[in-house]
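TODO from last week: model VANG1 protein.
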Amino acid sequence: MSAAMDTESTYSGYSHYSGHSKKAHRQGRDRHKSPRSKDGSRSEKSVTIQTPPAEPLLGNDASRAEEGQDDNWGETTTAITGTSEHSISQEDIARISKDLEDSVGLDCKRYLGLTVAAVLGLLVFLTPIAFILLPQILWRDDLEPCGTVCEGLFISVAFKLLILLIGTWALFFRQPKADLPRVFVFRALLLVLIFLFVFSYWLFYGVRILDSKDTNYQGIVQYAVSLVDALLFIHYLAIVLLELRQLQPMFTVKVVRSTDGESRYYSLGHLSIQRAALVVLENYYRDFTVYNPALLTASKSRAAKHMAGLKVYNLDGPGNNASGQSRAMIAAAARRRDSSHNELYYEEADHERRVKKRRARLMVAVEEAFTHIKRLQAEEQQKAPGEMMDPREAAQAIFPSMARALQKYLRTTRQQQYHSMESILQHLSFCITNNMTPKAFLERYLNPGPTLQYDRDRWFSKQWTLVSEEAVTSGLQDGVVFVLKCLDFSLVVNVKKIPFIKLSEEFIDPKSHKFVLRLQSETSV
């Protein structure tokens, strides 16, 4: 309502000023000049509807509120958490719809791959059993009797199939961690190898055993045992290719976040680009501090303010040459820009002072609240067991005493969008349940934690796009650069090969450490 009243008063003042200027000044130059200047001032105060995705609307409002607030602003301010912090344009809507279509395609591809692998695995486990049972069903009367050795082979097949089943379950039946853009090459090669292997065994079995109705049942069982042994060796090959090959570090990757420049280093083995990207993302959610776009708003507004001071006007019209005057104005603007480091220094110093002051107030408020909790616990021990207060009620009882100090500190450090009142109460009740100290409670708020510490709705990075000049199924090489993009920022990954290290040995003779201490007899002591 106040904003609408200010707008109406601005428009009324502007119309009054225009009518007065028309009556007092009839010159065409003044009449055309004043509307341009007023329109220019109006355009600088207009609201921009479409903003870049990496610059949320909350940051600008928070920065303007920080400049004009005093130390008692929390008494008359209401904080509303859980609101949206992104503006979405038509391009973003089209991109989101395209991502949904791509996700549907990825789900179909994933389920198709799982179906093919399940059918092939079922065929592998049923094939040895079928080799043993088919002769018993089709020409049971013509078979030779199965002796002691043949019956021992039954036990061998049973235990080998059990071992193969457990190993396959441990290696392949895992919850998928991500949807990769391309197939895993080694896994696809193993599936093709198993299919060709089982098909070859069935082809030989059909030609040499089923067609001729072989009566040597012990040889048939031995043939099934050889199939199971070969499957165990293929499983060992899968362990080497899928698990052991990537354990030895061969490359060092540097991961840089594009917005704030935070970087980490990781060591990787022989991996494809898409699997290396998956490892980088797993480490990103654990090691990198949570992405906070509000921290970038102050620097962007400062840069925009200094860029606004570089406007040059030609007062003599477009036809006159005023290059000397323009150069003088550019030099003055440059001198003003060179003094911006002083403003940055004092601004950061004032921000640090304000953060330290509010941190001290928060620590004192939390310590007093936890002291009150200890008094409540001492009083509850004297009451009946049915009247004792649970940790949730205790957290709700002491939370108002620290809410104002915590709210002011979170707003000063621009962390209010990551901590709702419900999450704070849950963390407070958790600390009370486990008898944690005030410092343990404040650790989450004093230092920004990794992304996994916060709720998924506040991650700003859920769906990623892999951008690489090389094929994503190719292996890592020295100098390869690929980018992982999400909606608000990107991770730039630079791959470097670990150099070959040559160590030499130098032998030190133990006798070289021996020495003789000679004392002169003619000493004063």
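Done. The mean pLDDT is 75.
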